[in-house]
Structure formats: structure tokens, C-alpha cells
Amino acid sequence: MRIGFIGLGRMGANMVRRLLQDGHQVVAYNRTPEKTREIATEGAEPAFTIGELVAKLEKPRAVWIMVPAGDATEAQIDQLLEHLEPGDTIIDGGNTNFHDDQRRHPRLAERGIRYIDAGVSGGVWGLQIGYCLMVGGDPEAVEPLEPVFRSLAPEDGYLHAGGPGAGHYVKMVHNGIEYGMMQAYAEGFEIMHASDYPLDLAAIADLWNHGSVVRSWLLELAALAFKAEGEDLEHLKGWVADSGEGRWTVQEALDRDVPAPVITLSLQARFRSRQEDSYGAKVLAALRNQFGGHAVKTE
User: Fold this and answer.
1) Residue 258 neighbours by CB under 8 Å, 6+ apart
2) What pLDDT score does 243 carry?
3) Does the annotation count 237 as an active-site position?
4) Which regions of the chain does DSSP assign to beta strands (E)?
5) What are phi and psi for residue 209, nearest 5 degrees?
6) Which of 136, 178, 254, 282 ranks highest by number of CB atoms within 10 Å?
7) Which sign does the torsion angle of CA 272, 276, 282, 288 carry?
8) What's the gap between Cα 243 and its chain centre?
């Protein structure tokens, strides 16, 4: 198939490479032209404006947007609407809030433009092993583009999850679960790191991936991290960002009256990681000192 692709960051560029490897034709555009020129040396057809990208595609056109969610994606959609025609399709592959998908779909439909939301998981490893794709949209929009989805995904790694917003909704919950899993691993390895036993954490992570009920790709990555950085992780600062999906998952749980304590607490732990010194912890220490005379540390 022939498809337009906007956004050549770490994931976007590798997605283009994977499509090219499977025989698709890709017209690629990036806001910074250096990345466009780079991917052109690997077989993509370069475009240096949105108008040029659309002009190089045959009708009905399909354009995949792979830029940060929010204002950046909205800006790309607005620019595309200046050039696309009825029957064309926009695919948003960023980590977009599903409420935005539900808002965009009828707006674009009024102009005859089809809209697909694609939740993408795989990170920097996707080029090698494929991207898990959770796709939302009307069947008449999704089905013609399934050859692209199946090329990007590993075997059994693509699902048309439902109507507009369903793909990003499933990806949102996926990332919320990821928060909880990562936090559990982090706490377990911290306990072992504090142990009196001289434990080899990389070896333990490798071990648990052979027959253990807690085996996972995240454990494989933990083993790689311990081997690369050393078990003390001295060169890393314990500051953890969140890209939004964890917050949205917690909010959806609240809106639906669904208890989600693990995901909620894992999100709160990320907030705590960003504090140089927690005022709340100071209050706890002061209270313990007041009621029980417990020792406190002073600066």
C-alpha cells in the first residue's frame, strides 16, 4: 500500500522502516527536514510540506500522524484538512485521550474524512519485534488499511478493538496496567537490593523469565538494565514521568466506580519520585516524633 506518514521520532521512523521492509510505499514528512532526508535514504519518498505529502498520495489517501498527543496532533490534523478530500483517512497513532477521538470523529465525518485511532505499544523495540496495535474506528475506515496494520504488528498483534476511540481507550488501560506491573517489579527489586544477601539481580530477573508466573518482557528489560547500568543504577536519577494514560485510567476508574488501587498508587508513586524532599514525609516524621518520641533526621 501507499501511505503518508507524519512524525519521524524514535517510534515513527522505525514504523516507517518496518512498513518499507514489508513492501509498502511511504511518503514521509517531519517538521525538521533533516529527519525526512534521513529516512529518504532508506527508501521513503520525502515530502517537506503537508501539501506536498498529500499531493504525492493517490486517492483515497491515508495519512498516519505519529506526533505527541494534544496540541501537536491537533495542529497536524488542521493542516491536513486544508488538503484532504472526502474519502481520505487520518490515522492518529499517538497516545491520545479517547475523548479527543470521540470529538474528532464526527467533526471529520462532516467533511467526509475518515478517522482511525491506533494505540501503539512496542517502543524502540518495535522495528525488530513488531508493534502491538489496538485500533478504533468505523469498519469501512479500518478494513482497507489492515495490510498496513498487519505489517506493523507481529503475528496476532493487531486488533480492531471497536468504534471511534476504542483503540486509544484500550491503550490507555494497557498503560495503566503497565504502571502497576512496573511498580511491583521496582518494589520487589528494591527489597532484594536492600537485603543482607549478595543477590545478583540481573541473574534473578533472567531466572524469573524461565517458568516463573511473573515472567514478562518487562523482566527481560530489567535484566538488560541491571547489566548495562549496574545493579546500583548509580547513573540514573529516580525521577519517573507519566505520559498521561495512567492519569486517564485512574480518572476512568473513578468515573465508572471501579476500584483500581494498584494502578492509582503506582501513579502516585511516580509523583513522589519527582520530589527532591517530600513535605508530606516531613509531616509524617514530625507526627511520629510528637506522639511517640520517635527519632527524626534533621538537615
Assistant:
1) 252
2) 82
3) no
4) 2-6, 25-29, 45-46, 62-65, 89-92, 114-121, 132-136, 158-162
5) -85, 5
6) 136
7) positive
8) 8
User: Over 90: is that where the pLDDT of 289 sits?
Assistant: no
C-alpha cell at 223: 535484566
Alpha-carbon distance of 176 to 170, in angstroms, equals 10
Band of pLDDT at residue 278, cut at 50, 70 and 90: confident
Q: Which phi and psi (to 5°) does residue 6 adopt?
A: -115, 120
Look at residues 169, 170, 162 and name the one whose alpha carbon lies nearest to residue 139.
Answer: 162
The CB density around residue 134, as the number of other CB atoms within 10 Å, is: 25
In a 13 Å sphere around the CA of 221, the CA atoms on its Cβ side amount to 11
Between the alpha carbon of residue 241 and those of residues 187, 221, 250, the distances in Å are 17, 18, 16
Residue 244 burial (CB < 10 Å; 0-12/13-18/19+)? Answer: middle
34 among known catalytic residues: no
| Structural contact between residues 120 and 91, judged by C-beta atoms closer than 8 angstroms | no
For the cut 80, the answer to whether the pLDDT of residue 201 exceeds it is yes
35, 45, 171, 245: the active-site residue: 171
Residues 5-35: b if buried by 16+ CB within 10 A, e if exposed: bbbbeebbbbbbbbbbeeebebbbbbeeeeb
Phi first, then psi, for residue 238 (nearest 5°) are -80, 55
Residue 189, SS3 per DSSP: helix
The pLDDT confidence band at residue 235, using thresholds 50, 70 and 90, is confident
* Strand order across the beta sheet in which 45-46 lies: 45-46, 25-29, 2-6, 62-65, 89-92, 114-121, 132-136, 158-162
Evaluate if pTM is beyond 0.70: yes
Residue with cell 479517547: 98
